[in-house]
Amino acid sequence: MKILLAPSETKTIYNDTSFKYDNMLFSKEPEIRKNILDTYNNIIIGDDKKTLQEMFGLKKESDINLYKQTIDENSSACKAIKLYTGVAFDHLDYSSLDIDAQNYIEKNVIIFSNLFGPILAGNNLPLYRLQQGKSIGDIKTQDFYKKHSSLLLDKFLENGDILDIRAGYYDKFYIPNKNYTTLKFLKDGNVVSHWAKAYRGKVLREIAKNNISNIKDFMALNIEGLQIVELQTKKNKTEIIYTIN
């Protein structure tokens, strides 16, 4: 089973290794990312404050300076699952998992980076910043990656179950063309929005701890604080609806 996961705006860097193009998912198609990264680097080199504010989604010069660095194969990097912080990643708490659960995450979770497109959680990434929905020059990355990586993802995902726990925005990058499963969380009959990120992280943690390989086993998994109340299927998408106890 493969799990589709959204990234986070906030990041950290552990300087574990160097960034390498050939470490990434779909590295045999380098043109998928090269033009985007070249454009990103040229904007940073241009050092236009207004343009950087727009691309990064930041206003303070000190915050901008943190991310104002070009990306090449000498850039410090760490595993993507360690790079991203934020609510879902905090509740996943990757660093506290045992080695088997960490390996599961690294091999089976696909993160949809706004800059790098779909990458495996175990791929090495450098520190970067691109606000969700912002273009790099005239490149809308969500449109670019949907066009250039959708068929590659279809092939990569064709032999197993898919659990999509991304925020809805990331449908702009990719929608599976086969049966897949999503999640919805209810509290007192109301849909949980912001804190759904926390429950996605908790769910992913339990999946990894239990080495879940298919949707059937996932649905049988007892997750503390959550109870399945309904399944809704429309076309090739099945939504599992949980109530939060």
By helix and strand content, what is the structural category?
Answer: alpha/beta
Q: Strand-and-helix sequence, N→C? A: EEHHHEHHHEEEHEEEHHEE
- For the CA atoms, what is the radius of gyration? 18 Å
Q: What share of residues are in beta strands?
A: 15-25%
Distance between the termini: 27 Å
The mean pLDDT is: 94
Helical fraction: 25-40%
Total DSSP helices: 9
Number of self-contained structural domains = 1
- The overall strand count is 11
Describe the structure concisely for a colleague:
The chain has 245 residues and is of the alpha/beta class.
Structure description:
With 245 residues, this protein is of the alpha/beta class. It has one domain (2-244). 35% of the residues lie in helices and 21% in strands. The chain is built from 9 helices and 11 strands. The chain has helices at 31-46, 49-56, 61-67, 80-83, 87-92, 99-108, 141-156, 196-209, 215-219, and strands at 2-5, 17-18, 76-79, 109-113, 117-120, 124-126, 162-164, 180-187, 190-191, 226-234, 237-244. Strands 1, 4, 5, 7, 8, 9, 10 and 11 form an 8-stranded mixed beta sheet that branches. It is globular, with a radius of gyration of 18 Å. The two termini are 27 Å apart. The mean pLDDT is 94.
